[in-house]
Amino acid sequence: MTEEEEKIKCSQIRELIVNEIDCERGISDGEILECIEEHVLKMGHTVYLSAGKKEEMIRTIFNSIRKLDVLQEILEDSSITEIMVNGPNHIFIEKNGRLQPYPKKFSSQDKLEDVVQQIVGKVNRRVNEANPIADVRLLDGSRVNVVLPPIALEGPVVTIRKFPEQPISMDKLIELGSITKEAATMLEKLVKAKYNIFVSGGTGSGKTTFLNALSEYIPSEERLIVIEDAAELQIRGIPNLVRLEVRNANIEGKNAVTIRDLMKSALRMRPDRIILGEVRDAAACELLNVMNTGHDGSLCSGHANSPKDMLNRLETLVLTGMDIPLLAVRSQVASAIDIIVHLGRLRDKSRRVLEIDEILGMEQGEVQVQPLFSFQEEGQDEAGRVKGMLCGMAGDLFHQEKLHAAGITI
Question: Where do the DSSP E strands lie in 190-260?
Fold first, then answer.
């Protein structure tokens, strides 16, 4: 049987089973599987099918009825980290840091649209022609971005960033060479001493993973409030943990709950620390207020190409939500943030900590930054992997008041 004939047979069996399903009563996954197996075995009487091929057809048909069709088997493959669907006929995946086409495709655009509605419906979100863009998450925590026609010209576009079931620990990052033991030990002390730490980096540089790793160092007896646009962080070991997620506006454009709303509410929830998954709008105003009003130890991430770019971007974000002089904004930024950890993705697709900087304060109207660690490249090996080391710089940590208050020494 050719691949095309197999697709046709799977489609025919699927249609038969869908027509047989009694919509008036709930049918379990087990009953659906039994029905599929029965039809596939019948087909095996007329066409030779190996045991492996029968199992594959059964799984394909079941996924198309009860799961996410072609996406289901990709999502179940732990070696795949990102999925890009560019319409029904073109699927790409990221595996081992490399992009590559996926051989399968959706049977039709209608089927892809059904899968999209299934994804957004599970987390009570809505996406349609009137609201064609949505950011949601799967039940396993994977992050999903959806863009529908007429905005997407070739059919629905779905981008899924997968996260491991067990978050990557700081020890694992050290093992992978993303950070050195020396730098990780310093960051552990800074987190415990309640320094405000900002994680910056480009898309796909590992900011969410690094925030998870940093959260390992938060003492378990503290009360932690986590605020995100779409829940992604997998924080463990904190019993007193509150997780808040943005709510989009309804069809009438009302009842939205924004990051700024959640930040304001979090201040009344007696937090020891607040973690903001990512700042990308005027919520930067509330973030600075949090960090400047006694909520030390807060963590946040943001998109930028360098620590200096991140500071400039924060200034811009604050000015979009507050009409105050630029010097006042810089003063707020300089007093709010203690440490910036900048991540990057090198040409060999590895994710590394490229820089750890301390914010010293203001001088002559500029925010002063001191590098504590910087990645020094040393070429590349025969396999094309970039060689280098995150090296400590000459300067010591200037502001050690929080360390002394916590009884910690560096």
Answer: 197-201, 224-228, 241-245
